[in-house]
Amino acid sequence: MKLILIAIAIGLVAGLLGALCGVGGGIVMVPAFVALLGLTQKQAVATSLAVVIVTALAATANNARAGNLIDWKIVAAVGLASALTAWFGSDLMRSLSNQTLTRTFGIVLVLFGARMLFKGV
């Protein structure tokens, strides 16, 4: 029961940040799943991807209902391209060790974080 409550708390934070910033899975859920729920890095990545589907659908439906503009041409182009590469990326993820995947994840977060700090200055 405790793990379910922790998972719900992670979901609440990830859902809020996902809706506010377009993030959540990678930045909130993956580290929380590893640190708080004891999942391996691979399990955390795969689980967060499944959760992101539900989170994205809920936020997208609410944005569309509220009249926010969604550029469906961009959705189609990016969605198709990212779905194709995600298929192969998930194969790559399974072939990496948890340690290598954790390091890769950390490097990506630092690089994107630094880009946002320097771009905003």
Characteristics:
5 helices; mainly alpha; 121 residues
Number of structural domains = 1
What percentage of amino acids are in beta strands? under 5%
Low-confidence stretches: none
Tally of individual helices: 5
Q: Mind describing the biggest β-sheet?
A: none
Please state the overall shape, judged from the principal axes of the Cα atoms: globular
SSE arrangement, N to C = HHHHH
Q: Could you explain how this protein is built, in words?
A:
With 121 residues, the protein is mainly alpha-helical. It has one domain (2-120). The chain contains five helices and no strands. α1 packs across α3 and α2 packs across α3 (41-65). The longest helix is centred in the middle third of the chain and has 25 residues, at 41-65. The mean pLDDT is 86.
